[in-house]
């Protein structure tokens, strides 16, 4: 498959008046992302451009020939193949967008939104931002009346996320503030005590940030962490208990099994994504309260604080620096005019004054 656009290779995404999917109703327009699905289920996603030409093994067309058509249109190409045209859903977009870090997939984002009880108007703290997949679900749930402060310690990942999120909403989301730095440092400098309704952590070591999250959360606020491995799960739960500022944590695994449904052949699919992550949630206690007394005394912890974990230790996949630089260059080229600024989480270091 090749997707050609002329004269500009990377059309900039036009700034949308109305945010997100609500601004992309009606017939297909230039500047919008469209998803083409062939009869084998293969999907190609690209932005409609006045000079654009779509080409694949299963047929080709000029973008101008589909602009003005309704979503859900099936066209038959000159080669006799059928192609379905739709605007991508957020779940599709997350799979097609450029990535620096591993993303939270929609099945997990759905659980995070529901179990962290993210509501319209909520004040939410999120880290790390990675490629911005979860950020988009959080922003959709809080709406323009909420506030999301997203913190990412890698500047290049933050910039990729800004580009992905701006492209999805069609412009800078007014409820979004994006800052670089370490979660605990940024919270200490930018977040008032007991000013946040929800904290959502998707990072290597959430247990290191339990104190910062407790400081930021309102009494009754929800802490939710998403982790990939059992040691991360266990260490985060023990840190929540040790802090004595949260209710007893709840932990569960997020697994979805697709089903094959065809006549009487109704059964689970032979293949599935067996594991993505565990979720851990707890509620912030009031400042003058301690957790309910546990019936059984806690089991002795198996961890000390000496070890330093790397993403390799937990087998997390990440891109090479070279790939991240390439992704970032492409992302920057197509940002809208009012691109989300990536702001420093901490004051910039001052140059020493020379006598
Ligand atoms: C798995 S990725 C997050 C993916 C993201 N939720 C998404 O859906 O695209 C984890 C990110 O956390 C960042 N990170 C890890 N520890 C951090 C910390 N203490 N403060 C801020 N960011 C952190 C990493 O740089 C990485 O980008």
TrEMBL record:
GO terms for biological process: tRNA methylation. Residues 93-262 form the tRNA (adenine(58)-N(1))-methyltransferase catalytic subunit TRM61 C-terminal domain. SUPFAM superfamilies: S-adenosyl-L-methionine-dependent methyltransferases. Residues 1-22, 331-355 are annotated as: Disordered. One of its GO terms (molecular function) is tRNA (adenine(58)-N1)-methyltransferase activity. GO terms for cellular component: tRNA (m1A) methyltransferase complex. Residues 1-19 have a biased composition (Polar residues). It comes from the Bacteria. Keywords: Methyltransferase, S-adenosyl-L-methionine, Transferase, tRNA processing. It holds the Pfam family TrmI-like_N. Gene3D superfamilies: 3.10.330.20, Vaccinia Virus protein VP39. This is Trna methyltransferase complex gcd14 subunit n-term.
